[in-house]
């Protein structure tokens, strides 16, 4: 069973809907015991890094997720869910992240006049090897890109952790991170058409 | 200006069909389209239109309950769940959202963003509270602007935000309102023209000229688009991030693939896709 955790804000409905389309069962969890019991865990999040990490610390979920990550079971972080995997988040002030992936969560460095947040679709600069596109290639409509809604991005210390980059107004940023059993995406697969379903399916196959 | 930046550098313009829904009850909801936000013509079942536009390549959808504020009725969340079921792109929902609880219910029923219009005008702090609670990328402020003439002179005047589907005056100035909503933390602004909506007579370019430089957050614009050239002109001349369409799509003046192809051929960056049955959509890739 895939367990989905929403630390602060986020749309769990649409993530669950995506897995329904894949014929996979999911359940929403909110307690550390439930996190540890999960076979596979997804952390979703929108909004602020600091709010999300505070939401996790409140209930001891930060320790539970760290323990889960060390168990080797598949873990996926979406958007802010991935950002909190980093060591530090530099938002309004500096917050400690979970430290599962060494690196920082920092503001997108865009040229003057380019709007933030980055809201909209962007393609991956290069396709990562672990992603298969069975569903989108067979679907009625196959979009080129994934959907983003963010002002910050993850900059891991080791480049090898980055599986794919994306781009906004000429600024390249990591879109997919993977370190052993830990996977993260800056985009929202549940809002990215059939390619998004392919991404969730690829996660399910880890 | 557009020539100076290569296409790669420009933000992709999102194409967002807008579905205005009138539902007596769960059993007979209908997408409608009025002219100048009045008068209603039934266009079809909401979930069918939503699915159709998704499969044509819409980047997002805007779903508006057009009588929730007018009839002081709660939003229809079951209908929203049904509409969003097979749609795998972002959905922005609104119409009669009055409280944070309404907002949350929308997010729990399939919405990714929620728009505020009437209730924001009555209580701008609601924008700030929603942005704080849900994140500003979830909060869209929708504005229906109408031009108010002064001294019977067509050029002299100002734009005023209206509410309840373009019916009621807010007694505010549009430019001040735009400043205020951004200060309150709106993640996006969706701007429509009461004077042009549903007319397909062309967008209000002077309205866009007036506002596009003061909006620092992503800006969605709509109302009045009747021809492909209208969309191209809007995207070329103004700093906009998304185009919202209803009349021209509902009445089949052109398809989304045709629109994306036209924009692309005119050097405007859009989100591309491959359509399996391209012939039926006259799609491109």
Low-confidence stretches of chain A: none
Number of strands of chain A: 14
Span between termini of chain A: 14 Å
Helix vs. strand class of chain B: alpha/beta
The biggest beta sheet of chain A is recorded as: 7 strands, mixed
Q: Main sheet of chain B, how many strands, which sense, barrel?
A: 8 strands, parallel, barrel
**Helical proportion of chain A, percent range:** 25-40%
Shape of chain A: globular
Report the C-alpha radius of gyration of chain A, rounded. 16 Å
* H and E string of chain B: EEEHEHEHEHHEEEHEHEHEHHEH
User: Helix segment count of chain B?
Assistant: 11
Q: State the secondary-structure class of chain A.
A: alpha/beta
Radius of gyration of chain B: 18 Å
Low-confidence segments of chain B = none
Task: Give the topology string of chain A: H per helix, E per strand.
Answer: EHEHEHHEHEEEEHEEEEEEH
Mean pLDDT of chain A: 93
Distance between the termini of chain B: 27 Å
Q: Looking across the biggest beta sheet of chain A, what order are the strands in?
A: 2-1-3-4-14-13-12
Give the helix tally of chain A. 7
Give the helix/strand layout.
The complex is a heterodimer of chains A (206) and B (285).
Chain A: E1 2-5, H1 12-21, E2 26-29, H2 32-37, E3 40-43, H3 49-58, H4 61-71, E4 75-78, H5 80-83, E5 86-90, E6 94-96, E7 101-107, E8 118-122, H6 134-138, E9 141-143, E10 146-150, E11 152-156, E12 162-168, E13 171-179, E14 182-185, H7 193-204
Parallel strand pairs in A: 1-2, 1-3, 3-4, 4-14, 5-7
Antiparallel strand pairs in A: 5-6, 7-11, 8-10, 12-13, 13-14
Chain B: E1 14-23, E2 29-35, E3 38-44, H1 46-56, E4 61-65, H2 77-84, E5 91-94, H3 100-108, E6 113-116, H4 118-122, H5 125-134, E7 139-150, E8 153-163, E9 168-169, H6 174-183, E10 188-193, H7 205-211, E11 219-222, H8 228-237, E12 242-245, H9 247-250, H10 256-265, E13 273-275, H11 278-281
Parallel strand pairs in B: 1-4, 1-12, 4-5, 5-6, 6-7, 7-10, 10-11, 11-12
Antiparallel strand pairs in B: 1-2, 2-3, 7-8, 8-9
Helix pairs in contact in B: 8-10
């Amino acid at each position: 069973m895939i367990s989905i955790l929403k630390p602060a804000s986020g749309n769990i409905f649409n993530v669950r809907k995506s897995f329904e389309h894949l014929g996979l069962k999911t359940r929403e969890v909110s307690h550390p015991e439930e996190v540890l019991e999960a076979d596979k865990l997804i952390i979703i999040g929108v909004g602020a890094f600091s709010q999300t990490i505070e939401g996790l610390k409140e209930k001891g979920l930060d320790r539970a997720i760290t323990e889960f990550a060390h168990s080797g079971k598949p873990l996926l972080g979406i958007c802010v869910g991935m950002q909190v995997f980093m060591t530090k988040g530099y938002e309004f002030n500096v917050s400690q992240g979970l430290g599962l992936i060494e690196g920082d969560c920092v503001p997108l460095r865009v040229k003057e006049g380019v709007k933030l947040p980055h809201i909209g679709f962007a393609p991956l600069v290069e396709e990562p090897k672990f992603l298969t596109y069975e569903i989108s290639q067979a679907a009625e409509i196959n979009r080129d890109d994934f959907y983003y809604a963010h002002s910050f991005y993850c900059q891991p210390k080791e480049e090898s952790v980055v599986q794919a980059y994306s781009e906004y107004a000429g600024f390249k940023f990591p879109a997919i991170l993977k370190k052993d059993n830990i996977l993260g995406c800056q985009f929202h697969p549940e809002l990215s058409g059939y390619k998004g379903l392919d991404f969730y399916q690829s996660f399910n196959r880890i | 200006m557009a020539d100076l930046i290569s296409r790669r550098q420009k933000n992709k313009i999102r194409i967002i069909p807008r579905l205005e829904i009138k539902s007596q009850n769960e059993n007979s909801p209908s997408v409608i389209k009025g002219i100048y936000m009045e008068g209603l013509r039934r266009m079809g079942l909401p979930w069918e239109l939503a699915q159709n536009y998704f499969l044509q390549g819409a980047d997002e959808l805007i779903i508006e309950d057009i009588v929730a504020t007018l009839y002081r009725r709660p939003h229809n969340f079951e209908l929203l769940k049904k509409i969003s079921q097979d749609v795998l792109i972002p959905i922005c929902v609104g119409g009669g959202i009055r409280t944070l609880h309404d907002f949350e219910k929308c997010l729990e029923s399939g919405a990714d963003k929620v728009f505020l219009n009437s209730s924001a005008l009555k209580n701008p702090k609601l924008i700030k509270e929603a942005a704080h609670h849900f994140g500003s990328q979830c909060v869209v402020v929708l504005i229906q602007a109408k031009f108010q003439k002064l001294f019977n002179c067509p050029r002299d005047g100002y734009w005023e935000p209206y509410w309840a589907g373009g019916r009621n005056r807010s007694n505010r100035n549009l430019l001040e309102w735009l400043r205020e909503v951004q200060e309150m933390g709106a993640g996006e602004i969706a701007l429509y023209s009461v004077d042009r909506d549903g007319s397909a007579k062309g967008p209000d370019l002077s309205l866009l000229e007036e506002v596009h430089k003061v909006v620092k957050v992503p800006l969605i614009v709509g109302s009045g688009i009747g021809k492909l050239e209208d969309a191209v002109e809007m995207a070329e001349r103004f700093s906009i991030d998304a185009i919202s369409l209803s009349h021209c799509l509902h009445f089949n003046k052109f398809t989304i693939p045709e629109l994306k192809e036209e924009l692309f051929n005119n050097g405007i960056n859009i989100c591309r896709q491959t359509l399996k049955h391209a012939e039926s959509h006259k799609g491109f890739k």
